[in-house]
Amino acid sequence: MYAVIETGGKQYRASVGDKFRVEKLPGETSTEIIFDKILMVAPDEGEAKFGAPYVDGARVTAEIVKQARADKILVFKYKSKKNIRKMHGHRQYFTEVVIKNIEA
């Protein structure tokens, strides 16, 4: 069974046991979090349920594994022949979660 969830303006395909990074969510490490914006639920057998926009009564339970920041991304802006150079760095906050349960 798998589900397509929406969080942080992005969509993720989640199965039980999957571990992935999402945009930063509030909560401490090893706490449980519930995703209720479920776009689709597909069981192992049978037909998939699609929401309009969300599936009613569907929930995905996950556990927060880590709260951290991603690797630094360097943004370098350059204009030729003008001696203009700007360098900026950015580190995005993220939450790493592992999926525990999918309820349709």
β-strand percent reads over 45%
Order of helices and strands: EEEEEEEEEE
Largest sheet: 4 strands, antiparallel
The secondary structure category is mainly beta
Uncertain runs are: none
Rg for CA atoms: 19 Å
- Binned, the helix content reads under 10%
Please provide the count of β strands. 10
Assign an overall shape: elongated
Sheet with the most strands: spatial strand order: 2-1-5-6
**Helix run count:** 0
- The average pLDDT score comes to 95
Amino-to-carboxy terminus distance: 10 Å
Care to describe what's here?
The radius of gyration is 19 Å and the shape is elongated. It is mostly beta strands and 104 residues long. Strand 1 and strand 2 (10-15) form a beta hairpin. It is 0% helix and 62% strand. The protein contains no helices and ten strands. The model has no long low-confidence stretch (mean pLDDT 95). The strands form three sheets. The chain has a four-stranded antiparallel β-sheet with strand order 2-1-5-6, with no helix packed on it. A four-stranded antiparallel β-sheet has the order 3-10-7-4, with no helix packed on it. Strands 8-9 form a two-stranded antiparallel ribbon. The protein has strands at 2-7, 10-15, 19-23, 32-35, 38-42, 49-50, 59-69, 73-79, 84-90, 93-103.
